[in-house]
Amino acid sequence: MEKIVSRLSIRNIKFLENGPYSMELFTGECCGLNGVSGVGKSQFLRAIADVIAHGGECMLEGVSSLQFTPQKWRSVVALIPAESFWWFDGVGPHFATVALDDLYLRDLLSRLGFGPDVMDWQISRLSTGERQRLSLVRTLIRQPQVLLLDEPTSGLDQKMAAVVEEIVTELCIQKTCSCLWVSHDQEQLKRIATRCFTLERTEILEMML
Amino acid sequence: MNVISLGVVDLSLAAFLLLLLAFCSLKIGLGIEKRIIFSGLRMTAQLLLVGLVLKALFASGSFPLVFCMSLVMLLVAGYEVSARQKRKLRGRSGYLISTGSMFISSFSVAFLALTLMVNVSPWYTPQYAIPLLGMLLGNTMNGVALASDRLTTDIYNQRGMVEQRLLLGQSWQEASGDIRRDCMRTGMIPIVNSMAAAGVVSLPGMMTGQILGGSSPIDAVKYQILIMFLIAAGTGFGVIAAIWLISRRLFDDRERLVVENLTKANKH
After folding, report:
1. DSSP A125-145
2. What secondary structure letter does DSSP report for B4?
3. Cβ-based contacts of B182 with chain A (< 8 Å)
4. Within an 8 Å CB–CB cutoff, is residue A50 touching chain B?
5. What angle do CA B136, B139, B142 make, to 5 degrees?
6. Among candidates A182, A146, A199, which has minimal Cα distance to A19?
7. Does residue B99 share a domain with residue B128?
8. Chain A residue closest in CA terms to B253
9. CB-count burial class (<10 Å; 0-12, 13-18, 19+) for A147
10. Which residues constitute the domain of residue B11?
């Protein structure tokens, strides 16, 4: 029998008044996460990405996050926050880590509705939706093993939301990525998630889809 | 040439100008008339007092007294830096960092100048040591205060951006690099500008004083050049040290941004 390797183990994560939370995210799996507003979903993701102080530990393929440098951990377990931030004036410099004619980059951009000239655009003129899509591309080209998505389609129309769902689902099926997807949209979670969890103040519950 | 001694009437006339300014502030509704008058009074009292202290200090010339005096100057400068911050580091570390960085830069530069360049004997002769240190501390204080106020404010306001960069796998140095460099520039620009304008637009205070006191302009200029170099170097190193130490405190050992280490904004 094929052994199922657990990609990301979340063990007793605690922060502020929240937790302890424990769950497993298996290889190639996309788990949905919801919960009432303000319960701490975004903070939970930030704790997993290790950008806020927290108790407990996260392990990737059995290796604790403390064995990684913080930079390496955040590159491998990548969080895309609900609001994206940009620090250069133009779009291009934010993507300087890869060659601009990189095939994967080209492909992602065109699927999400951008031509190659997007690299010359000014950040200040981007709409919310454009920022959200570019922010997804910016993280995906770094090829993380675990994706933490915080309402990644909140500012997108149905068509673009479907493209994002498709891209992420593909990555999971190819087993290049596992994903934890925060959404308030039950229908969306049914479409994309293999399992679904509800976050409460002191526990995380698996629920029926 | 002897200095023409100033009398009470002369000073009162000058003070009258300040009162006039305070009156204008009241009429235009600037709301800083109380501060103008209070600062004027404070300055007068401080300088009169320091005149008396210096008189006694110059008369004795003992090392422990010179040391105590410079320590008091340093501690007050540290307090001034904290008082000018909108957001400070929690606890004592903010005060320790600003005092420490001013101590390292001002004291070492002053010591170097006294022993190597001015060559006065003994090196702590208060007529040289105290004014030199005073000018170094005053300028370093301005630089450190400007730069660290800007650092804490910018990091707080741009915390989303800094965290975004951390999330994209950058180290804390990279994630805060632009902000830190901006703040260092902010701290150093005033002294660099004043070097550029020295002698053409403005006659520096110390040189003016020496000329009024009867020194030859050439001697006065040489001292001024020395002082300018020292001040620029001292301010620069102080600012670099302060920015480095403060930003180090804003990230923890897992390179997370901890804005919780900053106090709430206080209104000026």
Report:
1. G--HHHHHHHHHHHHHTT--S
2. P
3. none
4. yes
5. 145
6. A199
7. yes
8. A70
9. buried
10. 1-60
CATH number of A44's domain: 3.40.50.300
Backbone angles phi, psi at B164, to 5 degrees: -60, -40
For the purposes of burial, counting CB atoms within 10 Å of the CB of B197, is it exposed (0-12), middle (13-18) or buried (19 or more)? exposed
DSSP A120: G
The verdict on B41 and B78 lying in the same domain is no
> Which one-letter DSSP state was computed for residue B257?
B
ipTM for the whole predicted complex goes beyond 0.85 = yes
Quick check: helix, strand or coil at residue A202?
coil
Which residues of A are less than 8 Å from B252 in CB distance?
Answer: 53
- At B89, the amino acid letter reads L
**DSSP code, position B251:** B
- Which residues lie across from A24 on neighbouring strands? A9
Q: What is the pLDDT of residues B105-149, one digit of tens each?
A: 999 999 999 999 999 989 999 999 999 999 999 999 999 999 999
Q: How far apart are CA A2 and CA A124, in angstroms?
A: 50
Q: Which of B60, B81, B102 is the last residue of a domain?
A: B60
The pLDDT tens digits of the residues spanning B152-203 come to 999 999 999 999 999 999 999 999 999 999 999 999 999 999 999 888 887 8
**Per DSSP, what are the bridge partners of residue A198?**
A34, A205
Structure tokens at B195: 């070097």
Determine how many CB atoms are found less than 10 A away from the CB of residue A86. Answer: 18
